[in-house]
Write a structure and sequence with these properties.
Layout: E1 10-13, E2 16-17, E3 23-25, E4 39-46, H1 47-72, H2 78-82, H3 88-94, H4 96-118, E5 139-152, E6 155-166
Parallel strand pairs: 3-5
Antiparallel strand pairs: 1-2, 1-4, 4-6, 5-6
Helix pairs in contact: 1-4
Length: about 180
């Protein structure tokens, strides 16, 4: 299986290049203890690419926050409210610490999905309910925790720990015809 590499984005795991289409993020128990050995990673994303990769999910998240804040007359993210609910481009221009915090807490899964799609990965489609052959069996480096996000020389740098493994979704509904 070959994938294209999104220009300017680079991932290193334990100081070795890792293909972007084979990255994932632990969704359940993100940041918790892993029984698999953890390895350091460094993901570098050009700021220009970051806005394009996260534009839709980020702006949707910000709008949900704005609506919730109005409805409940309090804010779970007062810094976002105080900044005026900026879009990702304005966040990059003037609110980088808040953007880094929001990405670490809410957007890592969205970013990994967007990088995978931009790098040519397309999840196989099931031909019928319970199709085990369509299960996603790529060898992943799965991000367990992002420990630091910073900006340097036009790049957003994500550093943390993750593990190697195979992520397989076993489709259990239905029977094979």
């Amino acid at each position: 299986m070959t994938f294209k590499q999104e220009i300017g984005i680079r991932c290193e795991v334990a100081a070795q290049f890792h293909p972007l289409a084979c990255l994932d993020c632990r969704e359940l128990n993100y940041g918790q203890h892993s029984v698999l050995p953890l390895h350091p990673f460094r993901l570098s994303v050009p700021e220009k690419a970051l806005a394009g990769l996260l534009d839709e999910p980020f702006n949707s998240f910000v709008e949900d926050c704005r609506v919730d804040d109005l409805q409940y007359e309090e804010s779970d993210l007062p810094a976002l409210r105080d900044a005026g609910y900026p879009d990702i481009t304005r966040m990059l221009a003037g609110h980088r610490p808040l953007l880094a915090e929001m990405m670490a807490d809410f957007m890592i899964g969205d970013l990994m999905s967007a990088i995978g799609r931009a790098s040519g990965y397309c999840r196989p489609r099931a031909r019928y309910c319970g199709d085990v052959e369509a299960a996603d069996g790529r060898a992943y480096f799965t991000i367990n925790e992002v420990q630091k996000i910073h900006f340097s020389d036009g790049q957003a740098i994500f550093e943390g720990q993750g593990y190697y493994g195979v992520y397989v979704i076993w489709l259990t509904h239905g029977r094979r015809a």
